[in-house]
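Batch manifest line 226
LIGAND: pyridoxal-5'-phosphate
JOB: complex structure
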Amino acid sequence: MTSIAANLQAVRARIAAACVAAGRSAESVQLLAVSKTWPAASVREAVAAGQHAFGENYVQEATDKAAELAGLGLEWHFIGPLQSNKTRLVAENFAWVHSVDRLKIAERLAAQRPPGIAPLQLCLQVNVSGEASKSGCLPAETALLARAVAALPGLRLRGLMAIPEPSDDPARQREQFAVLRRLRDSLDLELDTLSMGMSHDLEAAIMEGSTLLRIGTAIFGERVKL
Ligand SMILES: *Cc1c(COP(=O)(O)O)cnc(C)c1O
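JOB STATUS: finished
ARTIFACT:
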């Protein structure tokens, strides 16, 4: 077994155990393998081990990789910071985008999503820890933004995403994920997705209702800093 296959197996076991602890079914949580910085060959290894959905942060890297792997029927999710000059590539090449935090970006994605393909599945990124440097809209802005985005054509608003301030304290991790869950529950929209939980905090995220985990390091190994 390759190390990626073994890592995937270990991650799936962690997810299964966390779901049992949370009293949830394992099918209620989707695993997104975050392949940023890793070559197409690594993605192929994960695919051979049964992984289907992949997350990427850099538009050019992702579209090159997706082109190389076209034909495998993979589902690509854009999860990185999104500038207006890159929205077209995202609208044309991804099934999902998790990192929308401004109406202007959503409007561009809506206008640029090619007709005749499935709507772009979208999450709004929320800054749940209040760090000034973080991307994401503020919790207090989310309801208005969600209502505006939900009305756009070519998109389907699925839920909320957060990247909490890193913490080794499970209580602190859960507190931040709970902010996102409560915010989602407070919105007057049908949102089935909470994109939250990474390699070091997936258990806390599952306890707080995550439906989509974004896992890189625990599957592919430590990334070399670019
Ligand atoms: C890199 C990245 C991840 C994966 O983080 P790991 O700690 O490697 O699991 C998840 N979400 C986003 C938005 C990322 O940029």
